[in-house]
## 1
Amino acid sequence: MTALVLSGISASKGIGIGRARVIVAGSPEVPEYLLEGDQIGPEIERYRQAVAFARTELADVAQRVRGQLATELREFIDAHLLMLEDDMLAEGPLEYIRSRSCNAEWALKQTRDGLIAAFTAMDDEYLRSRVDDVDHVVARIQSALAQRKDRDHLGEDRLDDAVVVADDLSPSEVADLAERGVRALITETGGALSHCSILCRALGMPYIAGIRQASEMINEGMLLIVDADRGITLIDPDGERLGRYRDRQQEQQRRHQRLEALRGEAAVTSDGTPIRLWANGESEKEVDLAISYGAVGIGLYRTEFLFMGRAEPPEEDEQYEHFRAALEHLEGRPLTLRTLDVGADKQAPLGQDPNEPNPALGLRGIRLSLRFPHLLKTQLRAVLRAHQHGPIRLLLPMLSRVSEIRAARELLAQCAEELELDASDIPIGGMIEVPAAALLVDQFLRHLDFLSIGTNDLIQYTLAIDRTNQALGSLHDPLHPAVLKLIARVIECGDAQGKSVSLCGEMAGEPRYTGLLLALGLRDFSMHPRVLLEVKEVLRSADITELGKLRQSLLQAEEAEQLEALLPLS
Ligand code: PEP
Ligand code: MG
């Protein structure tokens, strides 16, 4: 017997097996009616109370959830609380009630539709996905207006062995379901970048988003296999399939336990060479995660995320507080702060032309910071002040000429003088992301204290492959011989001048490339904290001496396929 298979977007990997619990609520009708003059005041008050109630309800969720889950959830609850406090939702509907004499539910719907239209029109995929957040917060206020409790239909029972099938889920609902033992989630809407997906990944909860007809095809109680590794759900599978999936699930659990046991182990190759494993991160939460996975520090902190999704750039004080908090969480471990890398796929309105014809080749990274030096100065002042609380390393993105390093150094010296602070113990590093930087690395190194290879962009610019163009995905190839030559060259030149070279692109966190990068001489890797143990597992069984012997042959390969004959890459 073959099972019915539904496919969707793999939003959080893993396999979950259980009985369906279908909680599709559908959107309730929003009532619309006109008010008499003397009803306007009380309606405004009713709306205000609903917002206050929504706030209390969210705070309650935060209270109910404990431990690791609470840390993961805090960021989302905070974001939703902020939205509830923001004028656009706290005050916007009041304007509608006053000017149109309409009821609060309708006023909220009008405000919501306006906001969604604005968000949907944005170019940035991440910001577009914030539409979900607006909807979750609006749904919470609508429920409060209707005096419905938070997802009443979920009940209070344990949901062990259940797979929840929903139209949509908010992060707080995900946290609640995880606490109650749910095995996997399926939603009809959503995508890989939604907050729900981010939270599921952080919790290790298998999740498939975007199975549009899930609630029509799946009935309460049906047996489901959620294979979120492949983005498919099997309905009522036969015994043989079920057996195979249970074996796979057990294998994954064993692997998980094996990796967990490595947390306290040293990152040393089998022949005794220590390797430094750094983490990439851009929030306090990721800093905590990095430490819990044993990272030596943060190897890449993308500060541009502080600038995105807002109309005005953050002031010096806000940046200072943010960096200081990260340093405090790091407890003495180094924080590698990359200066603003806005542009191309990461947009923020900072005065550049929003209709730049070719943004990946445009005003991005250090070029933008030097075109608008007040932006960089504000950031450097915040860095200098934060450095009083812990070790910062400064990293310059998208370098393509030595003069950019000089200019950034001059601005740092100016800021240090203005603040009467010492900048001399802040190491300055450069991202190697443009072939020009890789070719001129010897000259660059005279002015830099360390290097970090950004392979995401280095591959893009070396191979002329737009990294955001999904149709070209397989051509964005880390194994291209030209890319490997540049990486090897940068490491070699860094070693020759006694300066450390790390690699912080996605490639560093792919365990199948760990042996290859060790063979090319890499000793500092920076990656998402969650993949750190997998990389550690590979390097602990690697023999550096043997790998080193492959270096020359690896660099002679004409095609990526030839590499596989020298060392396993899958
Ligand atoms: C890179 O280009 O490899 C990199 C780490 O920077 P980002 O992905 O932020 O462009
Ligand atoms: Mg980059």
## 2
Amino acid sequence: MKLTDEEQEMLDGEQGPGVQKAIEIVVALGTIYGAEQLVPVSSVQVSGVSYKNLGEAGIEFLTEWADAGARVRVPTTLNPAGMDLLRWEEIGFPEDFARRQQEVIAAFVRMAIEPTCTCTPYLTGNLPAFGDHIAWGESSAVSYANSVIGARTNREGGPSALAAAISGRTAVFGLHLDRNRMATHRIDVACPVESVADFGALGCMVGRIVKNRVPYFVGIQSKGMEVLKALGAAMAATGAVGLYHIEDVTPEARLGDMQGDKIEAVTIESLDEGYEGLNGDDNTVDFVSVGCPHASLAEVQKVVDLIGERELTATLWVTTSRQVRAEAERLGLVARIEATGGHVVSDTCLVVAPVEHFGFKTLATNSGKGATYAPGHCGLNVRYGSLEQCIEAAVNGRWDA
Ligand code: F3S
């Protein structure tokens, strides 16, 4: 691999052991995947933040790296942690978990990372430009950055994203290269796809079909940030899709450009299979969570409108970024949700929080990604449907199909 003088200096340890370790990781990954060079990154999103996933070994790893003097050299944001960092006590997170989570965040802050703790960094100031090389972890954000923004990132893991932030480099392979950004599958959508839940169901179906390749959708009329983030998150959950194209919607959608000689074609006639695959059969709902990926302000507003003046029976979490929560607070939306007994939870989400601690049995959600992970990661039964159905379930404690 060809390195610049500065990259070689980093590798030789001239910028300290923290930087040396970072560029060693970047170079090792590049070597494995056949990269010929490194490229500067303009931003990084670090995943692997929740103590639930990191455990003690994770704290030790991060603390050692911070102790070695590692500091990020490009704007770097963090994925959701395992709790609301400000309101954990009020929401009922266990104290021992909270203390360990705070240690994790402290290690990241020592490395000069902003503790933003959201999976929608593109809504809160970490917004790359078209064509930028970036190094993002968090599969839903990767998908959004590649597909909707047209930036270029592989699906980074926690350590590799952090290594990119500290060295300011990533290796040029995978989705950084033009040839890997072309479509492999044409997906003709022959049924209506409108709501966030519809896009999540579609994404779960297509993720299973295309796995880690690149679908090109034809026939999708609805657009908007909320449905696009839901689609990408779902495909990344059931497959490993890091990039998709939608005809007349996403910036690199050109069906003429495809990988290989022959594109595989699939027609989706109905979303039933997607909905059925995500739905259990428990009709008593005690936990409702919306905002996966983290809710936009418009989604918070919609929750308020749907609840109206009613009180909730089930626990409701609307998960979002701290910035969106602050805007919602200014508009009186947080107070409206709290008055019904619900929570607007920032910095975390149902998948990375220790929800087992709360004793919930059955979750209702409109997130394809959340519904995919909740049984395995949180031991929950799941009901999956529209935001309207989820809010009715929060009010009545029952799922009406
Ligand atoms: Fe975000 Fe958590 Fe969903 S990280 S995409 S809200 S699983």
